[in-house]
Amino acid sequence: MSKRKQLDKSLTDKFSKRTGGQRKEGVKELKVFFLIVCEGEKTEPNYFKSFPSQVEEFVLDLQFGGGGISTVKVVDEAIKLRDRLPQKFDRVWAVFDKDSFPDAAFNTAIHKGEQNGINCAWSNEAFELWYLLHFQYRNTPMSRNDYANAIAKSVNDKQGNKLFRYAKNSKDMLAILQKYGNEDDAIKNAKRLHDTHSGTAYALHNPCTTVYKLIEELRGKNQILNEEIKQKYEDGE
Questions:
Q1: Do residues 122 and 110 make contact, with C-beta atoms less than 8 angstroms apart?
Q2: Which residues contact residue 88 at a Cβ distance below 8 angstroms, ignoring those fewer than 6 apart?
Q3: Would you call 220 exposed, middle or buried from its count of C-beta atoms within 10 A (0-12, 13-18, 19+)?
Q4: 85 pLDDT above the threshold of 80
Q5: I want to staple 142 with a disulfide (CB 3.0 to 4.6 A). Which of 75, 146, 226, 229 is the partner?
Q6: 90 found inside a domain
Q7: For the ranges 50-59, 70-79, 95-104, 202-211, which has the lowest average pLDDT?
Q8: Structure confidence at residue 100 as a pLDDT band (50, 70, 90)
């Protein structure tokens, strides 16, 4: 079986099992359905998979697809999964980095997402920028290795030793960031950084990340999504 079919079958099976049960009598269950398709093989999925047990506002069902594909293909993957799967998603997100991908491909991916109703949580040039913004505002370009060193230094400064070393595919980054960093500051820093850029030549917006938009939705801090979910509840969906 191809990877494409395996992915479709895996997600379809999960939705079938989840939606096939009966609700408890007198209990109205409300779920917010996110589809998050990641370009990164481990870093981004491991981070976002840590969210469900920690979200306070709503129960979130997070499903992941993709991995190790180009910026345009990750958007294509998000479109395909959204259109093929039986579940109706409240939000569909494509998560990818600029890295060494060509400028034209990076810009095209974001434009294609906008044209097809896919939200893009992009980082230029690396997802690690989002991590670093938990500790400091940074408005000068850095390499991925520089980000790793800066994140490690920030954590070690907070914990008072030199024991922490940043590991790209760690499953513990959300917990580490919550313990030693500040997510509210990261959102503020990311917004401030985003506001320094203009135009649609996104490959030139370096450093910059729109991951904060996805985080706000996952944390129940996006008013537009909140109103949609309230209406969904009132409509009995």
A1: yes
A2: 33
A3: middle
A4: yes
A5: 146
A6: yes
A7: 50-59
A8: confident
